[in-house]
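Methods — Computational structure assignment.
A single polypeptide chain was analysed. Its primary sequence is given first, followed by the predicted tertiary structure written as structure tokens.
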Amino acid sequence: NFDFALVESLQQQCFQHGLPAAHYLIFGGPGETPATVEEGLSNLDRLPGCVAFISAGLTVYPNTPLAELAQREKTFSDNDFLTAAPYFSPDIDPAWLDRRLTEAVRGRRDRLYPPSAAAERTEALRRMGYRGILWDTLIGSGRRGKRAAQ
């Protein structure tokens, strides 16, 4: 029961107090359109000093409201449960979404997509000697400097 204004306010407070924060976003769910993808990416750019873990598509489990919706939309069948195919809104082309999200995170160390990018970066940081929770190292040196000074 929250909206983006609350997320933005809380993130601003975390940033002001030097608290690292992460946001987890899933694109492609029910009602998603290219316009809502663009809105979500634009909103994400308004959140200072955070890491974003981004994924696309939803896992559909049998006998859930999402499974019923997907079957009504004819985007999913009973056989799809066996192959673990993800759900995407019928208004979204999964290939377009993948390209758009890849483009949105290009050159950003604080944006992780696809989900495997988080594991790859964590492993690289561990090889460099970093320990503990590592996603906050992706926020940037200016942010870490502020935390260290407090």
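Note: The longest strand covers residues 21-27.
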